[in-house]
Amino acid sequence: MSIVVVPLTDSTAPIEVTMGATDTLQFVAQVSGTFTSTYSKYFCPHLPHTKSLNQNETWPNPTNYPEGTEPNPYAAGKTYTFSWTPDGVKQPHLTSTPGTIYVDTGTLGHG
């Protein structure tokens, strides 16, 4: 048995994982973002279809699943593709450069 540890980085490239019959799976978010999957039924605990993870968070919860997901012989030899969208990519309109915010001092409730 081996734990397949998948680091979730600032890359948006699809994540491909090939499992063995006794392998377990663990995702470690190196940056915060959103994980998506269509393979929930092949893993225990079920992979969430959409799950937000904070930086340095591990799925599944290592307190309850220190070895990752449970082994699934039906998953053996198959390649699964997952998506990871880092938070910085989800909101491309945000910039890291400082700017000035102008607030309108108009009056409300007149008319």
Brief overview:
This protein is mainly beta and 111 residues long.
Calculate the mean pLDDT score and round it.
Answer: 82
**Helical proportion?**
under 10%
| Largest sheet report | 4 strands, antiparallel
Instruction: Tell how many strands the DSSP assignment holds.
Output: 7
What percent of residues are in strands? 25-35%
Round the Cα radius of gyration to an integer and report it: 20 Å
Number of helices: 1
Q: What coarse outline follows from CA principal-axis ratios?
A: globular
Which sequence of SSEs, written as H and E, runs from N to C? EEEEEEEH
**Content-based structural category:** mainly beta
Q: How many discrete structural domains?
A: 1
What gap, in angstroms, lies between the N and C termini? 72 Å
**Poorly predicted regions:** 91-95
Strand order of the largest sheet: 2-7-4-5
- Name the quaternary structure: single chain
How would you summarize the topology of this molecule?
Elements: E1 3-8, E2 15-18, E3 24-29, E4 33-36, E5 50-53, E6 58-59, E7 79-86, H1 87-90
Parallel strand pairs: 1-3
Antiparallel strand pairs: 2-7, 3-6, 4-5, 4-7
Biased composition (Polar residues): 53-66
Region (Disordered): 53-72
